[in-house]
Amino acid sequence: MAEQSKNGNRVFTIPNVISVVRILIIPLFVWAYMTPGHMVLALVLVALSGLSDKLDGTIARRTHQVSDLGKILDPTADKLTQVTLAVLMFLKFRGADAASNPWMHAFAWVFLLFIAKEVIMLAFAGLMLLLKKRPAAAEFWGKAATAVFYSVMVLLFLAGPEVGVLAKWWSLPALAVQILVVLNLVLTFVAFFSYFPDTYRKLFGKEKDAQA
Predict the structure, then answer these.
(1) Residue 212: pLDDT band by 50, 70, 90 thresholds?
(2) Is 135 exposed, middle or buried (0-12, 13-18, 19+ CB in 10 A)?
(3) Within a domain: residue 192?
(4) Is the pLDDT score of 111 beyond 50?
């Protein structure tokens, strides 16, 4: 029990360093995305962020480096990255010419739903931390939605119309992009609602988080 408490209070662990790096590369990714000629770098950074999200959790479990700080840093890195990606996609789709690319212009609103979901979850997580309660941990649906989100974003940055690195030579059909994004959105909200029971119990129930 003492060892578990000791591990939970650790700060400088490999998974925590990975999570911090994921947060720090967000501005670099935005710069690469907004700067002409650097889309390959933006694609690489998105792919690395997605892969490292899986990597830090695996390392934490297999090396017994799970920590209380890590349980906050990891989802924070996820949500900040996802909000950033959704904002950039919204701006890109919304900025598309309504005459030549009406589907992109009209489809931009979908990314606002991704943003709204992540902002709400960040607000609830912040409230729980203020109340000294541990935010609900990621369950199967949450992990699946995150993995699919990163996969779809990598596909968009690789071959999305007017967005992808390969767009000059080949791009995904508009319908395929719409289907992928909508399916991801549905999975995202399934994950969103799956957090409610645990969050409600911790906020309003009689149970208290276990003290280390």
Answers:
(1) very low
(2) buried
(3) yes
(4) yes
Placement of tokens 């060892």 in the chain: 3
pLDDT band at 210 (very low <50, low <70, confident <90, very high): very low
How many domains does the chain fold into? 1
Show Cβ contacts of residue 76 under 8 Å, excluding neighbours closer than 6 positions.
19, 23, 122, 125
What's the domain range around 127? 2-204
149, 184 in Cβ contact below 8 A? yes
* Three-class SS of the chain: CHHHHHHHCCCCCHHHHHHHHHHHHHHHHHHHHHCCCCHHHHHHHHHHHHHHHHHHHHHHHHCCCCCHHHHHHHHHHHHHHHHHHHHHHHHHHHCCCCCCCHHHHHHCHHHHHHHHHHHHHHHHHHHHHHCCCCCCCCCHHHHHHHHHHHHHHHHHHHHCCCCCCCCCCCCCCHHHHHHHHHHHHHHHHHHHHHCHHHHHHHHHCCCCCCCC
Q: Which residue has the tokens 């959105």?
A: 185
Length of the chain: 212
d(C-alpha 42, C-alpha 44), whole Å: 5
129-149: pLDDT as tens digits: 787 777 666 678 888 888 899
Query: Quick check: is 212 in a domain?
Result: no
